[in-house]
Amino acid sequence: MRYLPLTEQDRREMLAVIGAKSVDELFRDVPQSARLPGKIAGLPDHQGELEVERAFQAFAAKNISPSAAPSFIGAGAYRHHVPSTVDYMIQRGEFLTSYTPYQPEITQGTLQYLFEFQTQITLLTGMEVANASMYDGSTGTSEAVLMANRVTRRHKALISGGLHPHYRRIIETTARWEGFSAVIGKADVEGLEDLIGSIDKETSCVVVQNPSFFGHVRDFTKLAAACHAAGALLIVVVTEVVSLGLLMPPGEMGADIVVCEGQSIGNGLGFGGPYVGLFATREKYMRQMPGRLVGETVDADGKRGFVLTLSTREQHIRREKATSNICTNAGLCALAFTVHLTLLGESGFRRLSELNHAKASELADRVSAVPGVQLVNESFFNEFTVRLPKPAAPVVEALAARRILGGLPVSRLIPDDPPVGNLLLLAATETATEHGMAPLVSALKEVL
Amino acid sequence: MVQSLDHSQGRSQGRADAPATAGSSVPVTFTGNRALQIEEPLIFEMGQPGRCGVDLPEPPKVRDRLNGLRRNGEIGLPGLSEPQVVQHYTRLSQKNYAIDMGVYPLGSCTMKHNPRINEKVARFAGIGDLHPLQPVSTVQGALELIDSLAHWLKTLTGMPAVAMSPAAGAHGEMCGMMAIAAALEAKGERAKRRIVLAPESAHGTNPATAAALGFTVKPIPANGKGRVDLTALKSALGPEVAAIMLTNPNTCGLFESEIIEISKAVHEAGAYFYCDGANFNAIVGRVRPGDLGIDCMHINLHKTFSTPHGGGGPGAGPVVLSAALAPYAPYPWIVKQGDAWTVAEDGAKVDGKPLGRLKAFHGQMGMFTRALAYIMSHGADGLKQAAEDAVLSANYVMAALKDVMTPAFEGPCMHEALFDDSFLKDTGVSTLDFAKAMIDEGYHPMTMYFPLVVHGAMLIEPTESQAKEDLDLFIAAMRSLTERAKSGTAAEDFKAAPRYSPRRRLDETLAARKPILRWRPSNSPPGGDPIRQAAE
Description:
Mean pLDDT of chain A: 96
CATH class of the largest domain in chain B: Alpha Beta
Oligomer: heterodimer
Number of strands of chain A: 13
Low-confidence stretches of chain A: none
């Protein structure tokens, strides 16, 4: 087996040093009844690279790749172009095959890029501090609610109907099993929801998304003020981080915690993961944050260096009193994010953002010109909702039969709400082209 | 010249609030570099307006539909060209130790070889570029792939069901413990069973998870052989106990030899058995945890099945479930209906009562792909051989060092060898000093000070990936270090280690006392930024 360096001769010599007759002797603490007589039955034996590659080509052949079909699906995961440098860099063995940087003397590479990453996140979000990543935006949002509960010592979270339905479900699940109350708003299709009236003295936080799941762009400055007046925190979620190149950052609106899904920068769609959660807050809440933090310090020679810090918040030190049980996070996806954002820089990131908005504007104009299709949004960034004259799910299936990935029927994620049945969510990024938009529009005309 | 100024005067000097100590005796270079060790500034100190590492087309002018919320002012991101970006991250990469470089004996972390075929197949078009919410009819191969991995995981563990969505081991723990809470709720016992038992040697994630779910954590002592004290466990069990969380093989690198008695006692008391599967790599292919009577176990795909650790993730933590817990597995469920795969998402009718949802979409697909490629490459025969080689290598290291270091417990061990620090007694050298001296020898240190139950613990996990010659050199280096430590004259030397790494010991107290968690123009060292000054 190509991955195993020990030869039969090595194994014999090693057993002799140990003083054991066979490897079986080393497993003698396993109860007799649980010892298998040989290898596990019913599973194939080892295979060469060629055979393994073929097996995965066979899996791939049964899917429609968005690279080979017009694709307009967003809903929390966006198809962007990732520069070749990014994928090359994250496959360097020194990054790929290193562990969490517990020995800072020989992991300055990881620690420095995470420090740079943290700084980039604060700049994008307009916040003061950021951690070294969460699993993804969805789990990060749930951690933000738990953090707000800790900070305010309250246990009621108000969840906007404009938050991604999966994110809402995760908060609901966490609330159910960890014991707090989550008041979930009705699906906010029109983007007119007003949560200010629902805030009370029990409210720990209000969770909103910008742009919302349905694409609306909103100003939460007044909501932030209302939260603060009532002693609650405002959590702003961004599932399309590219929007921050063009939109007022949540920090400027008064957000206390900002959580983003960072997939759009540097990370492929990957059928849903792994992605990278971005988590930022105000300095005064720094010690209540979940996850790892990298800080600057000096070494014994007085040279600048970086270390994991404030770890007294974490499970390996605090155990049952930790701020979160999170351990492994999304280090390599954070590297992909930071390399891509460094390539983009100020001017590239802004231009990318403009391009996304322009493409989505074009798509919105073209699709809403199709008879029977009505654009729901007055505002959007690169994703918007349209109302079709019939249920959206079969329309999307009919488009798929024509090899067009024509958006998300909202009913897939909100199945129990009949009024959303005809809604279709469409996204366009810089990857959208005339060769994609034209077939979508003509297929829609046929199908509707 | 500006580049030289930068390194010699500015960026390597350190924090403004930290006094620079006397350096080592090595002569100082003009640049601050030492051959291949190149000092590297932060991207924020390198950027120039007008530089960019991508070429994007001019966006067409459109009417803003941003609700008047256009961002004002600069974001503050630095501008770098592509070659600068490549050089920056390449230089940073060279400041890291990695599995690709050599022995990485970090106990409990399983730093085994990461095959590149896994990276390749994960990037195939039609796998790596799929949108998670494409119509199910267009992702049949992806769903089949997930089910194939699920089949392997169920068969290897001897368990009937698996929840695939958890994003990492700790997330898997959360999933498993929520499933236990759900099962208790269904029996009307959630309110009365509030205690979770965990050995003192447990990973910190175990008590953190249980406490987050509102359970009270009660520690179970170990016996003199480094295993759970069965008598103490039995007396702790009762009608208030919800579950035990136990790692097996345990964090001392030992198989819990009374595990069947433990699971019997736990079940007789009406509680559930959560097994922390962090060390599954020691027994995969040889022992099925299902035969030991467990109710659930997370599998760290980044440990046992070699998906890359990536400097701290991403991981994946699927959880295998017993028949008693399977109905509570969270959404989504991947189900076969006739010839077609479907995804049962929130609210869909399934044969059970899902506990909710833990993660957006369907889990860490990229990790599933890599783990499945690893598993298929090994096959049933190779996985068993890998576990045996891992155990053999750990016992070999233990046997070759036991006369100069002090094993914490009588052998044999499983996949990792645990030593305490009594061999360092009166030498003036601590476990930390010893670990830092290993760095100068070209090794990543072993895990230190964990598990907490062993004084000055040193946990060595060589894995199956090292050739015998490399293990022999490692052993010889360790023996030489013990000799130096015991010579009575080298304590100062050890305290000064490491000397040859890109940075020497870092001041962690300063980092925590006055946290600097981001770059600001004002944290630059005294004298400001020489590049900017030179440019001005």
